[in-house]
Amino acid sequence: LNAIIVTIGDELLQGLTLDTNSSWIGKNLLSYNINVTKTLSIGDTSNQIVFEIKNILQEEFDFLFITGGLGPTHDDITKSAFVRIMNDELVFDENYYLELKQKFSKNSIKMLPMHRTQALLLKKGDIIPNDFGTALGTHYSIDNKHIFIMPGVPTEMKTMVSKYIIPKYIKSDPKNMIITIKTIGITESHLSEKLNFLMKKYSTECKFSFLPSYKGVSFRITQTKDNSNLLMLKDQFINQIQPYAYGLNDDTLELIVSLKLTKLNLTISTAESCTGGLLSKLLTDIPGSSNYFLGGISPYNNKLKEIMLDIPKSSLEKHGAVSNDTALKMAKNIRLKTGSDIGISTTGIAGPGGGNKSKPIGLVYIGLSTKNQDYVKKYNLNFNRNINRIVTTYKALNMIRLLINENNFES
Amino acid sequence: LNAIIVTIGDELLQGLTLDTNSSWIGKNLLSYNINVTKTLSIGDTSNQIVFEIKNILQEEFDFLFITGGLGPTHDDITKSAFVRIMNDELVFDENYYLELKQKFSKNSIKMLPMHRTQALLLKKGDIIPNDFGTALGTHYSIDNKHIFIMPGVPTEMKTMVSKYIIPKYIKSDPKNMIITIKTIGITESHLSEKLNFLMKKYSTECKFSFLPSYKGVSFRITQTKDNSNLLMLKDQFINQIQPYAYGLNDDTLELIVSLKLTKLNLTISTAESCTGGLLSKLLTDIPGSSNYFLGGISPYNNKLKEIMLDIPKSSLEKHGAVSNDTALKMAKNIRLKTGSDIGISTTGIAGPGGGNKSKPIGLVYIGLSTKNQDYVKKYNLNFNRNINRIVTTYKALNMIRLLINENNFES
Q1: What residues in A contact B270, CB-CB < 8 Å?
Q2: Contact B13/A289, CB-based, under 8 Å?
Q3: Mean predicted confidence (pLDDT) in A266-286
Q4: The whole model's pTM is what?
Q5: What is the complex's ipTM, to 2 decimals?
Q6: A238 to chain B nearest CA, in Å?
Q7: Are the C-beta atoms of residues B294 and A304 closer than 8 Å to each other?
Q8: Residue range B211-232, pLDDT digits in tens
Q9: Fewer CB within 10 Å of terminal CB in chain B, N or C?
Q10: For residue A231, is pLDDT > 90?
Q11: How far apart are CA B159 and CA A68, in angstroms?
């Protein structure tokens, strides 16, 4: 089965908004064995929308997903374009208008005359509910082809797809034709070297690809024959690259760390200097994080390292804030202060300023402290401020993962 | 002048890689007054590349930018597709091959047989140099239309565009034909209402568009006639929507807040519960943040609110952690503890769990404390955990902005 995706909006063409909708839809359809053959972004111009959609309707596809241009302002013209494309008409839905009125009044937002257009619905189409916004979606069915028109706001679109479109129009169960193994702490070429003989062995039934990013390298196995058992096969690959593989598919490192902390009933606290709160932010991204995350401190100012973390002024003056010694004390003291099982710290020079010959930009120390051991890892990173902070944070998360993996906490 | 962008690669359609190239090119062309009319992503299939590009060649455009599929591996087929599209042929460039050989040996990387294909060049095209990678770009010129074929790796592509394509083929100076006014704290429709008469007044010389996001609504003015003075015109729009407009174009709220704090020589500290460090992360994203950011605490656990922020257990028990009272005490105590000019706090129920009838998911309190005043704002948000946290953080940043705007610190 094939799909085409069209995203509508001048902001996409002018680089003001990144089109994340196409990518999200493509990824989700793939798990139902539906291939996206192309994606198209076009502007808020009625003639162009009509021209491009009419062209696509001549092509081969099973599903056409369209997002954007359903809002109440003057540049939202997707519905009127579809009046032309489908020889349809817009009808005013009194019931939905009343529903909207109640929604606005409940949220104490003033309803404006322009909001009336949100109750104008395409007559020949079916409604797709919108759980979060005011713009309803529309579904057309022509010659066994399905067309879905959805708002461009990602959360609204995603809920429409997952909750209404997939169960009603796609129906099939998701298939595991693709598995992504997520790794951290190893480069793409070294990963490739370790996996080379396995890739050769299975080259007739699988395709392989590597996707490096600042958060680690993803390795993807795509099954090309239906008869191979991907779930069993993947374990051979994972075994070959331990301890670098931390999860599968949509797993994030912060999720894996949080699951392990929860499972072992461990608590953690953070003391962040160069990462400024990013580590505690990621550790609390996960629902239920209060089970393991006790708290964090970002003592940016040196005086606060003294006051809030009891790091002696003399030691800060001797070793400097960016040092093995400070990282170690930060990790240990936040652990003792909060009573957590694990204390972790970051201190470094993220850039663009602040570096010198002995402590260059990119120099980072990450400290880890438990009841049984305290240690520090030192890195020399080579990115910009933003990426240096992200890389440091993921290295810290990986240190937590490895610490727990090594069964340091099982008795 | 119009442009079309085509990005090539299965990973774009399968949601493994986000297409950031189209967005970057679109944004950069706009400053040279070149409009991107559409962008297209297609897979690594020779027939499809030939079909789509041949179709586009029939359309109207001045520039066609193509990225991706120029690497040395088996799925890089853009060059061979262009042999078919242009009736061209691939010729082996001995000099470039020697150059490559030296590059590899200089970087101590083993050159593989497959790298030979990087020296196969399209005969009818001109070469576009690649400062970072091995894949050269190609330029074709047909009937005053320019076609650029570039690698998909963003740094390689960006340097080709900025350093070689724009100076050689676009030539013109960048124009300020577009201004984006960034706002926060007002909805798209209310902004539209406030600006309606101005939009009507200038409708013959400008185009207007709104871009809502969780971080606020951007309002964009695009000049359609060369004679209007956009820089002066924008002030009329800004005056109409105070105090919601906080910046222009690429300004972020955290940048604006940091600039104001720095300018007024003010210091700030944070006490975050529901946002878990995101606010301190954003405040320290800006280089030089140590000038204004003293430090932050994320006392996730209630006991830490007592220990680290001196909030009495009795008061926590009486009002709850998510309350006006706790938010106020958190803001005041972090300010006093760190000695900062401004203390700001967040506490709320981000979801998906933890809500009840009297304190539902999405209930958030943001506290602000200065020497002269302490106050709390309460919000009922309606998103998922992640977005609730982002929205809370931006509302907090906006409270800081408004506090400083009101000249509370000027004597």
Answers
A1: 277, 298
A2: no
A3: 97
A4: 0.84
A5: 0.84
A6: 20
A7: yes
A8: 888 899 999 998 877 766 888 8
A9: C
A10: no
A11: 32
